[in-house]
Amino acid sequence: MSNNRTNTNLTKLKLDPEDIQRTLIDIQKYLNCLDNLDTNNESYLNDLKSLINSLHSSNIAFILESLQKDQRDKLWKMVSTVNRSGVLLEIDNWTRESLIETLSFEDLIEITSILDTDELAYLADDLPLDVIVEAQKKLNPEERFQFLRAMGYPEDSVGAIMDFEMIKVREDITLEVVLRYLRRLQELPDHTDQIFVVDRQEKLQGTLSLAKILVSELDVEVKDVMDSDFLTLNPLDSDSDAASAFERYDLVSAPVMDDKGRLIGRVTVADVVDIIQEDSQEQDLSRAGLQEEDIFAPILTAIQNRAPWLLFNLCTATIASLLAARFETTVSRIVILAFLMPIVAGIGGNSGNQTMTMIIRALAVGRITEDNIWQLVKKELKVTFLVGILGGALSALFAWIISNSIQITIVTVIAMICNMLVGAVIGVLVPMLRAHFGKDPAIGSSVILTFITDSFGFFIFLSLATFLLL
């Protein structure tokens, strides 16, 4: 590899996934070259430092997550302090902890000095206590109050993600005064699409969009053009509920008010996008009974993460096999049934997974209530039955081809439709019951569904075969 890296027009913000992948490959080559050198080559080190620090912090985070721990630690030492603060905010929890462990007290103090109050609160749980204490000393009284307030809210609440940087004005001033005030600022807080109108007790009176300021006469007072119909959030609201509201109303920002109506912060679309992505990743992992894990995690850690639900699945598969073994005589006399059993069990599981995915999504956005749950069950049964008839026609053709028996064909179709209906019911009830008892509806649901559809599929199919064919 050449010491002089070819310019690929990399920019901080305009890397598409293929660009990031190519950059990851380049960095891995640099690191491998450094590993193969007897002594660290200054030219390689400088090229690598220049490359990694030219990237946006989110791209650096992605690259670090994609490296093995020894290479990750080596590259992390080359990241600048400014980029490190951004990386710690962007990177996944399982990697953040290991990166913080490699930093000295002085390094962490330097990083925290760059962070805003809400960002410091976001990282506080992962930082050593002595670092938090020292970082608080550098905050002014207002910032310290905001920090302690943010630390007091639950992890999955609006208060834990709200931003304290926002622009507030009074309702009795003109737009000209507002404009003069804005021009004196060095820059606007990120994602500022509206200004919040408050009284002297900091109670929210309305919102004033930047667009309204630009198109209105300058001598008009704020109270005459402000919007009094606006969405507000409470700091104890669920962050997932806030994300749903942003999606529903196409919001860029929303004010956060305490129980007394005072404006205490705001939530922006950037925070909401992170929540949506985290929830989506958690649901994908939860359906398989997994937790977030470093892809290069130690073997023991990976086993602890994956083993519990796999062992549960082994137990459930054993039960399904024992049920099938009860019909050993039937299978031994009609061997073709062994070829058709997986079809009956598999189609029930697939049908149930479709229903379960719809239910988990509906639960996440709050569309399911006690009043509509049974209507939903009836609807899913009807849909599944009609789809089962269509699938039954295809399975009937296959069963007839391999068995040349009308009786076996009828048994296969009936068992398949019945198992699909079982899968639909389980696909609705399992996530609903978990949600009712305050559990994540996605965790392990697919494992439970597979156990029930396999067991009932084998039982229904072999029971019908025993009753009708022997």
From TrEMBL:
Q: Pfam families, per this entry?
A: CBS (PF00571), MgtE (PF01769), MgtE_N (PF03448)
Instruction: Give the bilayer topology.
Output: Multi-pass membrane protein
Fetch the SMART domains from UniProt. CBS, MgtE_N
Q: Which keywords does the record carry?
A: CBS domain, Cell membrane, Magnesium, Membrane, Metal-binding, Transmembrane, Transmembrane helix, Transport
Q: Which residue ranges run through the membrane?
A: 331-351, 383-402, 408-430, 442-469
Q: Which GO terms describe its molecular function?
A: magnesium ion transmembrane transporter activity; metal ion binding
GO cellular component terms given for this protein: plasma membrane
* PROSITE patterns the record matches: CBS
Q: Which family does it belong to?
A: Belongs to the SLC41A transporter family.
Question: What job does this protein perform?
Answer: Acts as a magnesium transporter.
Please report the name of this protein according to its UniProt entry.
Magnesium transporter MgtE
* Taxonomic source organism: Candidatus Kinetoplastidibacterium kentomonadis
